[in-house]
Amino acid sequence: MKPEKIDDPHPLMLTPVLEVLFKHCDFKTLKTVRNVCKVWLTESSLAFNRSSLINFFNMYPDTYLAIIKSIKDGSTFLPINVALTLSPYGESDSYRNVCPWHVCEEYIFPFGVSIESLKFYAWDSVSGRLNAALFGQILLTPCRLKSLDISLVPKVVSRCPLFPRPWNLQPPLRFLTTLVMYGKLECTREFLHNFLSAMPNVNNITVNCCSINFLDMFTSALYEIGLRNVRHLKLNFVQVFNDSHMAQIEKANLQLKTLHVAQRSVIRKFHAYEHLLAQVAPTLEDAKLTCCTRPTNHEQYITIPIMPKLKVLRLQCWGILGLWNFEFINFMPSLETLVMERRGLFAPILHPPDQWHCFTEENEIKLHEKLKNLTLPSIPLLFLHENSLRHILLRFSFLNKLTLSANDVCLECVFTCSPQLEELTIAEYSRITDDGITGLVSGFQQLDETGSGESSTYDCNVKAGLTALQKLKKLEIDGFWGKVTDFSIKHGICHLPKLESVMLRGCKISDWSIRALSSIQLTVVGHDSLHTFEPEPMDEPIYL
């Protein structure tokens, strides 16, 4: 529906809330889902005038009409959920994607705009301290805040108006469900205890860059407060995760569905991991574990219990020693996604539980059929021997999604061993060329480019390789060396029958490739820019 031209003699009267929303709104990042408009406030220099309203109406007519209707009805809360990123800084090129605090104080809270998501951006020794008065005002405002991110705030003022407990009314953050924190937050134990107790319904907690002292305070607070609703716990870049931390989490008796423990240093004791996994094994659905030991000690074992509901497993520090040993999948009967991250070259052997005898060879084959998504480490040197990769792909021949760093030899294994692939990502550090993309498959002949009728070895292998992936819908290529050119597009990618989306990063392609792939969504990432080309309406793709 095309909007009518707005030139009425009576100008539209806007409330101060709408004025600041339009004034500080970046239309490029504005997204609308029916009548709910999530606005990312910025310090852009967009002028507030009639043309801005017309542009807004052209792009988001449903939201525009909903706003006008709410004004006429005199609604207290506008049908707008604002995602705010606050910063103590004013207008600056370095912080133009954040909203200064004074805008929030002057325009947002006094008029009762509903806030769903709030993120504080403050990262230096001068302005890095969280504004206590503003923070207290946020807690007092009936904004029904659901997500709070203070992961970029190194210091917190403990003298907040609402701290310490008790509160006269209900906890101020009783609607909060998601919390993201900085793991080296400079605060007192009392502040952290009272802060977490203000959110009794939080079920998703992420702590980044955990120091030892903060982890001590955080794990003890989990137990003392009794946050029984926490189902997703992510501890990223932990310095040391020891038995005392484990004991506190065990006492909290959390029924976790997600557990991420990503540790920076080498693990010397595995008892904490074993006890933690044993406790959460019945309910765990998503796990990220650090399994690392010293290269000089290869006899370490980690006993992992049966996890009947585990669907996603991410392993860090997984390398040469345990890479091809996939027996642990047999006691994860629901596993669908396995991500093996590159964080080291050696890993301990996963020791099967006592119930290992209940798995027969027939059950093992059925379990392997359930794994649909596999991500292998970004270490090309590990895959120079194609037999190792071939062994993995043949074992998991029902994969729908595969991510790996590869060379040309590895891609040949992918083309021949994974016929069910729907998504293929050739990740960074890949050493691939046109030979690898087009597929080195022998026994196929066609006319060369000159049309002489002679057999061309370079051209004849082209089509057969990629056409083996008849179900491929999404392809992402990171041409690390820049040796992927128009040749791969012409003789390989254009012949994939069900391809819907292609992303090319660091590839040397011309306008010809863009025209040839005009029937699908194409994203080209160069060194300095990102271009996305939507499909053009046409009967069939162009083959030149």
UniProtKB/TrEMBL annotation:
<dbReference type="InterPro" id="IPR006553">
    <property type="entry name" value="Leu-rich_rpt_Cys-con_subtyp"/>
</dbReference>
<dbReference type="InterPro" id="IPR032675">
    <property type="entry name" value="LRR_dom_sf"/>
</dbReference>
<dbReference type="GO" id="GO:0019005">
    <property type="term" value="C:SCF ubiquitin ligase complex"/>
</dbReference>
<protein>
    <recommendedName>
        <fullName>F-box domain-containing protein</fullName>
    </recommendedName>
</protein>
<dbReference type="GO" id="GO:0031146">
    <property type="term" value="P:SCF-dependent proteasomal ubiquitin-dependent protein catabolic process"/>
</dbReference>
